[in-house]
């Protein structure tokens, strides 16, 4: 009894000593967590290089686009074919996906061989053989009369340009078919089907069995002499280096090389080698699995070694068992390090504190090695403790995957058709834009005419501004700029002569909501309080200066300093103001304060102020345009056409108030259900219809309503409408500008949507970006059609063959949106080809314009007094 215990103890110690010796010999193959995290970090860097347009060519991890933009969501259904080609055999499958609340997938498949002469023949022979087998399969299932969607798994290095277009880079796995490398394999199989002519299929998708990881650099410090020897003896030296460290093709060979080297150094097999052990490929990866899987792994190691012509000792068998453990563990750990990098990337993309993710896994090493999967799972979870990772084995191979990609692509194609049909109503043809221009010109004439002015939607209001700056203006002027929830008070100093220029000082004040929605006295008392504060701030308390008042609301102007408010817009509801002269209301508030007096010389809107500001810089500027929160235009009209004001000579700036264009129904054929929905819930339903189609205040709401419609139809956000998406005003127009930025990747688009509380996939981000593009483009084109009508009217007024004119422009939508200005300008050029139009951005806002109008008025007044 004592003797048996001593013997057992002896063998345990012997085994322990031998394991320690192997561990010391292969210490560089045993990777610490610190090393694995460093590998993961390097892999992340290579991923980022692979994604970058400029760094992609030199990246070792190529991050090749697959154009698979969505995973199955459970709504896929239908019948699909799949081809799975990646070796000497290939499979043809029929996959039926039913959607009856619980998705069910049924598969039938058949395996066909590819003879060696075809593998090394021409591409035509190969693809004719594949289609012959496909025809045979369809005959057996009696489905040749159906045109079914097909997914093609083609597991060779390819450059993919579309979901259904993939160019073979180079053959591997023993294939040498001529005339295929550099060609699109989908085109080749389509041609083979056409040559047969007895069936037709719709090739929807071509995919790889995985996204190949091609490591070529950056890991030399963890590669061993055995890895280098494997690489030098491979068919592709210097390539796929990472794969050669982790995949089943090379694992057994790594063990064999270690055994040979240790034997040569007389650390194993008493220094003796057999021809079988020296033969490449004789120690298989299956042997590694068997040795590690058997309960008596030492005995299994003996069997394998004896098969290879070696007479091993107990210590040799223990060492072999340990070598297998070290090689397979390193493989699992390296695989885990790269997966950790991928999971970190996904986690950061989603901006989540804790990621929940499922990894689909296939492959013989993962499935058949007794410990690989467990080691992989354990290391991944150790390296990324803030990720909850589930590993799901693929039981049906890549053929089913190709069919599911096809099913997803089919679903997305159906959804895309529905989306495009909806968005089509927002896409305007050139003929439609010319019709908008024509209708705008009709409304302009109606607004100018005394007879039709009352019923015109484009009011063409006289501003009594009859000239633009000529450069002789000088003096100090105050200006107020009121057109939203904030307003500015400005001091503008105009100099002429050699030092001609404008010096400005200004301060911005908020208007509380209670003042916006209270009484007119409360609103104007607040404005005067702010003027008093500004004068004190500038050290000018008690000084009386001429004042220009930019008042950006619909008004009927009776003189340069008398303007009757027709209606509040932009959220204002102050009582006792509509129908009243705003200059009088301002003067009364000044008198109530009894601190100072001001000479209110001119009241204008922001559009006229913008024209005057730009007119100071460019004498050709005779048009003003605002495209921001709201939208409006003005221009210098011939006095003979301004029938509301007496006089035939000269010109007068006309405030178009074009936001109401279409209020009479003349744009109803262009308005969509989304325009109607936004209008219905606005503060002024049925009013300002043109403005609601083109201005910054409403574009975000149009987008939000489209997104809700798409989501209800299951076309977006997986059909789940979040509370945030239901919130009016959440989609500010500034987000449209950000989302449409050319330099913004989908990752950043998703970040914006996440900020808005909208969880999105990559495909969702693409759809949202498309919706933003369509809505903003329509707005720019409509604005361009309106402006084309204006400049053509000026040209026709003057009887000119061609007109050179400058449009002064202001507004956040025009200035900040990445494409709005360009699209609008192109539309004007296309619809008014006889007009040479320059667009000049106003740098100092409409407040400066009000001061310049005041300066011009003072100059004219002084000239008249002389």
Give the gist of this structure.
This protein has 866 residues and is an alpha/beta fold. Among the domains are: 205 residues, Hexokinase, domain 1; 156 residues, Nucleotidyltransferase, domain 5, CATH 3.30.420.40. The chain is built from 29 helices and 22 strands.
Which structural traits does this protein have?
866 residues, alpha/beta, Hexokinase, domain 1, Nucleotidyltransferase, domain 5, six-stranded mixed beta sheet, five-stranded mixed beta sheet, 29 helices, 22 strands, 47% helix, elongated, disordered N terminus
Descriptive account of the structure:
With 866 residues, this protein is an alpha/beta fold. Among the domains are: 1-36 and 219-387, 3-Layer(aba) Sandwich (Hexokinase, domain 1); 78-215 and 398-415, ATPase, nucleotide binding domain (Nucleotidyltransferase, domain 5, 2-Layer Sandwich), CATH 3.30.420. 47% of the residues lie in helices and 17% in strands. The strands form 6 sheets. The chain has a 6-stranded mixed beta sheet with strand order 10-20-19-18-21-22. Strands 3-2-1-4-7 form a 5-stranded mixed beta sheet, sandwiched between helices. Strands 13-12-11-14-17 form a 5-stranded mixed beta sheet, with helices on both faces. Helix 8 (248-264) packs antiparallel against helix 12 (314-350), helix 20 (606-617) packs across helix 29 (845-865) and helix 23 (696-712) crosses helix 24 (733-739). The longest helix is centred in the middle third of the chain and has 37 residues, at 314-350. It is elongated, with a radius of gyration of 38 Å.
